[in-house]
Write a structure and sequence with these properties.
The protein has 272 residues and is of the alpha/beta class. It has 12 helices and 8 strands. It has one domain (3-271): TIM Barrel (Alpha-Beta Barrel), CATH 3.20.20.70. Bound molecules: orotidine-5'-monophosphate (OMP).
């Protein structure tokens, strides 16, 4: 099944556009997992089990694993997610960008080693740096467009020669030229709803990955109104820290469940 088929199925079967982000920070783990071997896997697996019924996608951030020399735990986790929750879209958040020969290796890492359904990439080095991901015809290629951080404006708001801001130029480039397999998506931050609206107008029904609700304070109703596609769906709305660390106590699993459920419901309420 392709990335977009899986995502469409998850949107309708689970009635959810929530993406649960896995940014496991050992310093914030509950006491029962402090200094335990395999704690990153155990924590993430606990969060996945607690939140899977409420999510369309799961997004592990690779740096949290590699910085702790825990790529083996990420491999085990990806295998667990695929085997236990085949209806969850697995997004590897790696934000890769390099020349083609190196990008081929990054693509193999995402799609062979971790068997992700999609990977996040930077458009900064242009089409030949993205080609190796596009050559995996069923896999999702999620391109940074208007990121959620304030500093994204340093470059993304610069105007091109015809007056189009760079983030909208990227949106047009991906929609018109890079999306030849129909498996591309764009990253647009929930902290910039006006820009989400402009991107949606430009790209039609291409999916959007939207981080920035929860810990970064993005407004859910404004995000959903701006980002919904012609069918009222079209979004993977990510929340990481607000769900992962909803409680630092023994009730961390239940707190994550409650937060994921409440976030999915808030997203759905804004669709109506
Ligand atoms: O690609 C992303 O997921 C991403 C793009 C972006 O523009 N902003 C952004 O915060 N993210 C990711 O979203 C996660 C943070 O989510 P919160 O903890 O909910 O703020 C981190 O893994 C970031 O790398």
């Amino acid at each position: 099944m392709t990335f977009t088929e899986k995502l469409n199925q998850a949107w309708s079967a689970k009635n959810s556009m929530l993406t649960v982000g896995l940014d496991p920070d050992p310093q914030r783990f509950p006491a029962e997992l402090q200094d335990k071997p395999g704690a990153i896997y155990a924590f993430c697996r606990g969060i996945v089990d607690a939140t899977a019924p409420y999510a369309c996608a799961i997004k592990p951030q690779i740096a949290y694993f590699s910085a702790e020399r825990a790529e083996d735990q990420l491999e085990d986790l990806c295998r667990y997610i695929r085997d236990t929750y085949p209806d969850l879209t697995l997004i590897l958040d790696a934000k890769r960008g390099d020349i083609g020969s190196t990008a081929e290796q990054y693509a193999r890492e995402a799609f062979e080693r971790y068997e992700a359904d999609a990977v996040t990439v930077s458009p900064f080095m242009g089409l030949d740096s993205v080609e190796p991901y596009l050559s995996w015809q069923d896999k999702g290629v999620i391109v940074l467009c208007r990121t959620s951080n304030a500093g994204g404006s340093d470059l993304q708001f610069l105007h091109t020669s015809d007056g189009t801001p760079l983030y909208l130029h990227v949106a047009g480039l991906v929609a018109d030229r890079w999306n030849r397999n129909g498996q591309c998506a764009l990253v647009v931050g929930a902290t910039f709803p006006e820009e989400i609206r402009k991107v949606r107008e430009r790209i039609g029904d291409m999916p959007l990955l939207i981080p920035g609700i929860g810990a970064q304070g993005g407004d859910i109703p404004a995000t959903v109104q701006a980002g919904r596609d012609s069918k009222g769906a079209g979004m993977m709305i990510n929340s990481s820290r607000a769900i992962l660390y909803a409680s630092g106590g023994d009730d961390w699993r239940d707190a994550a469940t409650r937060m994921a459920c409440a976030t999915r419901d808030a997203i759905n309420a804004a669709r109506a």
